[in-house]
Each structure stands twice: as structure tokens, then as C-alpha cells.
Amino acid sequence: MDLARLIPAAEAIPSPWGWLEALLLLTFILHVLFMNLTVGSAAIALYGRITGRQRDLARELGHRLPTTLALQINFGVAPLLFVQVLYGQFLYTSSVLMAGWWLSAIAAVILGYYCLYVSDAKFESAPGLSRLALGLSLGMLLYTGFLLSNNMTLMLRLEAWGAYAQNPTGSFLNVSDPTLWARYAHMLLAAPAVAGLYAALIGVKKRRLDWVEHGLKWFTRLTMAQFLVGAWLLMALPRPVMLAFMGRDRLASSLLAAGVLAGLAALLMGLKKQPGAAAWLLVFSVALMAATRAQVRLLTLAPHFTPATLPVTPDNTPLLAFVLALAFGLAAIAYMLRVYTKSAGRG
Q1: Which of 58, 79, 300, 344 has its CA 20 to 30 Å from the CA of residue 244?
Q2: Could you tell me if 165 and 224 lie in one domain?
Q3: Are residues 151 and 118 in the same domain?
Q4: Cα separation of 333 and 337, whole Å?
């Protein structure tokens, strides 16, 4: 079968695709950083609540979770919209195939968000309910992440789209794709690793050396495991894409190598108990890995589609409006976080 015949017709875009791809990458980096903070902090806090270790750190992280989840959701809207603009014919198709599951993510996020407030409010007065709410929230976040991984891998797997003929009910999941499980595991390990470094930075600020030590253990141990999972993910990619990252494509190979080196440098700083330096290197590594992820998408679709071929109907007004709104929004969020940090410090 000619898989290209399954691809719906593309819509025209208002600006050159490179600008849209760059904004997709920028907003995705912001989203994934807050996603890691939220999911990872919830995991570390729940571990502390269950084991009784670092209970005060668990309370501190739990108190911050509604804020980080709100930022995660807001920063997640923009990259999803940019994916729809550039790769809409793929994303809409995969979303239809798993429509029932995909729509359930809305309810899962709302329930998870509400449970975070319950967990924080009932920390002292009803610890059992608080732990249950935190566990339920973490479960909802992991469920949503699983659905996102399904959709983002299914949109690249044209050979699986024929499943609609046997399953038109919107209940298809991409569980037979080996990249799904490697990709999801990569996310599962990354979240508490990033949140561990976040906990260490909080410990530095509050002069809690035990928090620093505890957070760095999460960061260093899971980052070591990440290199193994990363190798698994690389091997799970379709062979032409995998080979592109192993030297056949200069840009793809360079991004992957730079991301790995940045991750190793961050790990070294963590082992040396320098969380500040590790944090900057971690952000750099996440940015490079996000760019690598974008290359996976481009290379996987390359035999059938490239966004460079999209027709352009020039109208830069929407792009300019978005850039201005993004700049204003980032400034406003930075100000609110500064005020929030000061008030939390006084509390």
C-alpha cells in the first residue's frame, strides 16, 4: 500500500514553517520543564508521604504542585497548537483513531488538578485522605502522559492507521509500537530526576542540607538510568531514523551527541553536589533533547511529508500577535513567580 495516500490534504500556513517550528520548539521546552517538575514532584512527595522520609520536603513540594501544574497546562497549549498547524493532517488522524481515550485526558487533568488542592489542604487534618488524593493526582497525570505518548507516536505511524477499518470506535491505542514504551519510560524517569534537582535547589535556598542531599540522590541515580533508557529509545526507532542519529544525518547526530554530553555534564555537577550548575546544564540538555525529538518527527515523516512543502498564505499578523502575547505572558509569569517565591519565603 502507498502510505502517502492515507495522508489527508494539508492546509496552508500563514508564515514560513521554520518560524512556526522554532516557536513549537521553544514552547515545548517550557512545557516539558514544568511537566517534569509537576509529575516528578508529585512522585517524590508521594514517596515521602508513604515512607515517612523527608515529610517536610514532601509538604513543601505538595504545596507548590498546583502552581507548577497550572504552568504546565498553560505552556502545553501553545506547542499542541503549533503541532496542529504544521502536522495537523497527522495529529488529527491519530486523534480520531484514539478519540475516546484522547477526550478522557481532559477529565483526567481536571481531576488530577483538583486532587492536588485536596492533598495540600488536608495534609495535617486528614493525612490519609491527603495521601490518597496525591496518589490519585499522580495517577491521572501519568495516565494523561501515556495518552500523549500514544498520540504523538501514532501520528508518525502511518502503517497503523488502517486499524480504523477494524476499530472505528475511537478506542485504538498504539501499544504495539516499540517506540511508545521507550518514549514513555524516558518521560517517567526524567520527571523525578528533574524534580529531584528542583528539591535540591529549594534545599539550598532554605538552607536544608538534608533536602539538598535527598534531591541530588533522586537526580543522579535516575539520570544514570536515563542513559540506558535513552539507548533503548534510540534502538527502538525505525532503522533509517536510528541510523540518521548514528552519523548519517549531521544535524541529527550533532543534536543527540550534544544533548548526551550536556546530560553527562549535569550528572557530574550533581555528583559534585553543585545543584546550581547542574540545573543550568539540565535546562540546556532538555532543550537539545527537545530539538532531537523534533528531528525524530521530521525524519520519520520525511519519506511522505515535510513541512517545508506546506503552502504559505502570507499573513504574519497572527505570528506577530502570538510573539507579543508570549513575551508579555512570560514577563507576567516571571513577575508572579517572583512574588509567589517571596511570599512563600516569608511563610
Answers
A1: 79
A2: no
A3: yes
A4: 6
